[in-house]
Structure formats: C-alpha cells, structure tokens
Amino acid sequence: MIKEGKFGPREAVWLVTITITSKVFFSSPAVLAGLTGTAAWYTTLVSASTALIGFYFIFLLLKRFPGKDLVEIFDIALGRVLGFTLACLLGIYMLFITATRIAELTEFLRVYIIPLSPNWFIVGIFIISVFTLSMVGLESMARLAKLLVYPLLLGFIVVLLLGMQNYDINNLFPVFGYGLDKIALHGVMRSSVYGEVIILAIFAGSFQGLNFIKKEGIISLILSGVVISLSILAYTLTFPYYTAQEITAPMYEMSTLIDYGRFIQRVDPIFLFIWVISTFISAGVVFYAFIWIFCQTFRIQDKIPIITGSCVMLYALSIMHRDIITVIFGYVSFIRRFGAFPLFLLPFLVLIVSLIRKKGVRSDA
Which end of the chain is more exposed for a tag (fewer CB within 10 A), N or C? Predict the structure, then answer.
C-alpha cells in the first residue's frame, strides 16, 4: 500500500479549507440564491453547522479505530466484502467530484475568458496539473497549500474590499429570504458543500493523530464557513437576489464591476488567480483521495500506473458533458443534494454497525 509523509496542523487546515472553499467561485452561490433568496449568505452557515455534526461522527469512527484510515475501518467494521464495496463506491464518488469540478471550471473559462479555445485543450491542461499534483503526493500538496494560501487570502480580501463601492444594504432584505423552512431544508441538504473534510479520515495516517484531526476538522469547517459566507454576502450586497440567481459565476461578475478610475479597474485577473489555483489544489486533493482509496482497497503499492490510467479516465469523464447547463443543473446539483450521504451519512452508518458488532476499541478523546 502507498505511504505518505506526515505534516503539521497548519498545512492540514489550509489544505482542507482550500479544497472546500474553491467551489464558492462557481455556480453554487447563484443556485443557493435561487433556493433561499436573500438568506443565502447565512444559509451556508447552517450547512457548515450540519457538517460539523457530520464530522463529529467521523471523528468518533476514527476514535474507535485508532491508527486506522477510513478504508481500513470499513474492512474491519463491515467485513472484507461489504467494506470493499463501500470503499469502492466512495472512491468512485470522489472521482465524480473531481471530473465535475474540472468540467465546471472549463465551462466557466470558456464562457468568460477563453471562448474560442477548444474544450479538449482546456481540460487537457487541467488534467496535466492534477497528474503532476498526484505524482508529488499529499504531503507536497499540503505544503503547497500552506505556501499559496496567503496570496490567495490577500487577493480574496482585496476583491471584497474593492467591491464595497457596489454594495447596497437594501439587497439583504427581506432578511429571511424565501422563509425559514427553506433555509433549514437547503442548509441541511447542502452540507455536502463542506463534505471534503472527509479527507482527514481518508488520509488519517498523515495527520499527526486523533486530537490533531479533531482540531483540524473543526478549524477547517469554521474557516470555510466564514469564507463562503463572506463571499455570498458580498455578491448578495452587489446584486439583488433575483439577478444573482441568473448569473453563472457571481463572484467573477462582482470583480469585473470594480472601477476606481484610471488606476484601479479590471481587477478580475486577481480573482482569476484565486479561482484557478484554488481549483487546481481542490481537484488534485480530491482526485488523490480516489487514488488512495483505490490503492488501499486493492492492496496496490505502486501508485504511478494507477494515477496514469485514472487521469486518462478523468479526462474522458471531464469532456463527456453536453454543455454548461448539464454541468450546473445536472452534476453539481446532484452533488449538492445527495453528497452528504456518502460523505457524512456513510461514516455514521459504519459507526453504528461497529457499535452493534462491537468492533474497534473504546477510547477517550
């Protein structure tokens, strides 16, 4: 089985946070605005709170099987056949998330930036990037995330501050949007937005122990909730909710409106840097989670041929969609609605089964 080096809590926190927050630059905020209206910016905090509960059960599962990662726990708790099956399903789902993320970024770049570039060429560049990140491994990705997070955060703050000229407080009313029932329903269902926190369980052996995993998960979810909420709040202040839900990439549109005269305008390249780099890291981590699960499940020690073959498959999956509508309202919508089941509910069910079958050990946090 493949081995990974260990790295510190800061690297882990920033790796998970970037992986989660990168999707806020795509269509999800606009879709959420269509579902909850002006309440979208704090509906995501309901999702983050739900994800914290889901992560707590993931932590309890890891605590019951100290020193084991998620795939090993599936085998021990459920038996080889059922554990193998569920691990494969989780791995396939991680591959699906990666393909969807690449397809979504590709379509948005074709809409806004490079409309004449062929789809196969754009996807090919991203696949090469994902391949490179996978070859260097998780530890290198974590250290890259820590290195790049500071310019990414600086660029994010600059865009939010410069965008203040277009903010209108009246866009936040009515405060409760389409109603508290819609806020609660979609807030809980869309907790899958924060589901990538499960990589702490998938790569449990690289995160310095259970207590560190607990802290890293909580801090990552809180930071991600703050960043995503601020992003949605910013574009809600910029665009009325009935306009925001019609925009393909609201955050990018918001950045294009910034204009302070001759010397400060067209700051969208700063946003593009944040957008592309964070997506590269996010797609690389999720894809590597698929590689890890595959190698662990089939007891494979050499990851290189697996990465190579999987990248070919990822390339095919990333160009199979019909158009941007299929990606947004088909693939992405499916992930947001049902993604909590494999990412949060599945570990919870495995925890229940392990308790019933008395598998694992009892230990204090």
Answer: C
